[in-house]
Design goal:
Largest interface: A-B, 73 and 69 residues
Number of domains of chain B: 2
Number of domains of chain A: 2
Largest sheet of chain B: 3 strands, antiparallel
Order of helices and strands of chain A: EEHEEHHHHEH
Distance between the termini of chain B: 13 Å
Number of strands of chain B: 7
CATH architecture of the largest domain in chain A: Up-down Bundle
Structural class of chain A: mainly alpha
Number of strands of chain A: 5
Strand content of chain B: 5-15%
Number of helices of chain A: 6
Largest sheet of chain A: 3 strands, antiparallel
Shape of chain B: elongated
Radius of gyration of chain A: 22 Å
Oligomer: heterodimer
Chain lengths: 207, 204
């Protein structure tokens, strides 16, 4: 079976916003006739933008993990937790099942995003034809699960609002949570900026 | 502005051109090259979706008005509502978290519901104009930033964590959130591209 044609080969262009199929005008500054969004074959500056956002996210990711995200004061006991120690506490004292969920959302998902987006960007820059299907699938996975990392931020916010008993007990957010929230937003922006069409654009076409 | 339903589909993930064919109930069309979903059969018509949006709006109001969790210690009771959480973060602690929570749990979800309701009304009334077009483009950008479902999981984790030290109970707000989660899942299956086509059928 011959490979199905791609838009560029047929002189077509698909609107990135509404999906409308138009004839490729082959010049810049054209708008989609249906939704009015600018027409472009690939997301503009995809690789540079995606790298910049990813590196910024990586820089914020360090304090997000090293600094404590939440302080619990209970009858004079002060307990500062980082993301990882919070997971450990949940595993030991509370419910291992939830600990696994929090571990996945807060640690596995962000790490995976860094690895997957980094790999995608590098392979796309080299025009690699290696494992295109799996790479496309990984990108869709990252897009799909990325925002679940916000979990820990919401947990800290909820606990802070709940536990306000002055000297007896208190929950306070610590700077780590701000860095973590920003990391999640930046990685989301990084994966949105990446254009998965580039995976299939390599110098050598498949098969 | 010309609105037409296209006989072709271009995969958003790899730019492969496909000839469109009608889908049977429950059927999903996938890209031959990269395997991404091209389109799904849409279970709900415009009227059905409008009813769902209305129901989701009611649930959204309840989820925001009712307390989500209460905590009791030495006879004192503290109830947390979404806006209480946001304001606490804003006043006492970290504004960045407050802004993130307000945006992803309140403003973007409410925008999404209102915009979706608006475009469906436009299609139903056959008023496909500039307002419809702008709302559809906005919907495209707002969609990835609603995180109510993450908040439901966050509330569960908070209850378990707070339970280590305090007496906590889940309140009706959490059930309203759980219901909202179901609606959000239904709406995430709504294909904006196909809404454009419905608009085209109406305009024709």
């Amino acid at each position: 079976m011959s490979a199905p044609p791609r838009a560029a080969e047929l002189g077509l262009i698909g609107c990135h916003v509404c999906g409308q199929v138009s004839r490729d005008p082959r010049r810049a500054g054209m708008a989609c006739p249906r939704c009015g969004a600018p027409l472009h074959r690939r997301k503009t500056g995809s690789i540079a933008r995606s790298w910049a956002l990813l590196i910024a996210a990586l820089i914020l990711y360090l304090p997000a993990n090293l600094l404590p995200i939440m302080r619990t004061v209970s009858l004079g006991d002060v307990d500062d937790n980082t993301i990882l120690s919070g997971v450990v506490e949940l595993w030991v004292k509370g419910s291992p099942g939830l600990a696994v969920i929090v571990f996945s959302a807060s640690i596995v998902v962000p790490m995976m995003k860094f690895l997957v987006l980094g790999t995608l960007l590098l392979s796309v820059q080299r025009g690699s034809a290696w494992a295109r299907q799996p790479r496309a699938r990984l990108y869709r996975l990252v897009e799909f699960i990325g925002y679940w990392s916000m979990l820990d931020v919401f947990v800290v916010a909820l606990l802070t609002a709940l536990v306000q008993f002055g000297f007896f007990s208190l929950v306070e957010p610590l700077p780590g949570v701000v860095f973590f929230g920003l990391t999640v937003v930046l990685t989301m922006l990084a994966s949105m900026s990446f254009d998965p069409r580039l995976i299939w654009d390599g110098r050598t076409d498949d098969e | 502005m010309t609105i037409t339903a296209s006989p072709m589909l271009i995969c958003e993930h790899c730019d492969t051109v496909h000839r469109r064919r009608p889908l049977a109930r429950g059927e999903v069309a996938r890209c031959l090259r990269c395997g991404a979903v091209l389109e799904r059969h849409q279970r709900f018509g415009v009227d059905g979706l409008l009813a769902l949006v209305l129901a989701a709006m009611i649930v959204f109001v309840l989820a925001n008005a009712w307390p989500i969790v209460t905590l009791g210690l030495n006879g004192q009771q503290v109830a947390a509502r979404l806006w209480g959480v946001i304001l606490t973060m804003w006043h006492d602690h970290s504004q960045v978290v407050a802004v993130l929570a307000a945006a992803t749990l309140f403003f973007f979800p409410i925008c999404k519901l209102l915009l979706l309701g608006w475009v469906l009304l436009c299609i139903r009334l056959g008023r496909i104009g500039e307002g419809f077009r702008r709302a559809m483009v906005l919907l495209h950008y707002v969609a990835p930033w609603t995180m109510s479902e993450v908040f439901v999981l966050g509330a569960l984790v908070s209850i378990v964590k707070a339970h280590l030290y305090f007496d906590v109970t889940a309140e009706p707000g959490i059930y309203a959130y759980a219901a909202l989660m179901v609606f959000i899942t239904l709406f995430s299956g709504v294909d904006l591209h196909q809404l454009w086509d419905r608009a085209a059928e109406r305009a024709a």
